[in-house]
What does this fold into?
Amino acid sequence: MKKIRDINILMSLSVYVCAIGLVVITQTEGISYGYEIKGFEKTLESIINFSAIIIGFYTAMYGVLLTLKNSDIFQNFKFHNAEKIVKFQLYESLISSFLILILSIALQILINYINPFTNFICAIWLGTLFVFVVSTFRAISLLLKIMFNHSGKEQEASVLGESKQARYDSFKKKQEDK
It folds into this structure.
């Protein structure tokens, strides 16, 4: 499980490095500012709508997750100490959704006043948009895996291996006794 955690950390760091790279390249005018592209206002409107839908989806899914708290998949998360990874991915995606929503609304106003501050906000917006897209994909994939998890004993045995099955059953029993 440590390997999976390390891969998640590496993936998150690479997303942030790419986002910072986008901001730097945009600031050095290697990439044109978004507001210079025809149809940018409609793009902002679409991103505002999409991010609002994603925020609504997360809100609904978090409610469903509370009802699944004692399910097999959450027991697997606890058993493999993966709860922090799940929480991080969900927080990251929710925060990036709110950030892209706020920055998109701000850009709708700022594109009427082109100055260095607008350029900076546009560069930050591009980096945040990249983080938003990647983290949203990761979080929705994770949430769908949780929602459609149909693990039976046969699947658990094949996934965990016969040697780990006894430990897992013991762990699960302890969790049920609490």
